[in-house]
Amino acid sequence: MKWLPGCLNAVTNQxxxxxxxxxVDNGSEDESVRWVSTNYSEVSIIKLDKNFGxxxxxxxxxxxxxxxxxxxxxxxxxxxxxxxxxxWEILEQGSEKxxxxxxxxxxxxxxxxxxxxxxDLSWYGEASKSGHGLRVDGQIFSKEVFSPCAGAxxxxxxx
Length: 159
What we know:
alpha+beta, 3-stranded antiparallel β-sheet, two-stranded parallel sheet, 4 helices, 25% helix
């Protein structure tokens, strides 16, 4: 619940309004579901009766979404007002071979430091956060990565 207000405010105030906003409650025991339904009537809620883990919760939301693209966003994030349109434009204007895009994710505690810019894969199969710990230098950080960070990404459905 701590981060939820900032996250939902950012999502509902995007420059390009999402077709739908789905919140998957993964067995929370606080008042977050009630708070969201009271304050954000535009948000559809899927309430799981217990914590099934990240993958099952995400899949429940993806199954309900009926859109060409599906955005995943963890509740401990606050996105830029142009976050969705920027990622959408990359997928729309890019190659059909691009299945997903991820933004530059900055540290909440120190926004001058990169938390994640997608996931890299080493030659021996170990995944790591691309750009983690690097200082943001104001330049566009664009590169091909093994996979997006599912904490904030836009996926092309049916890829």
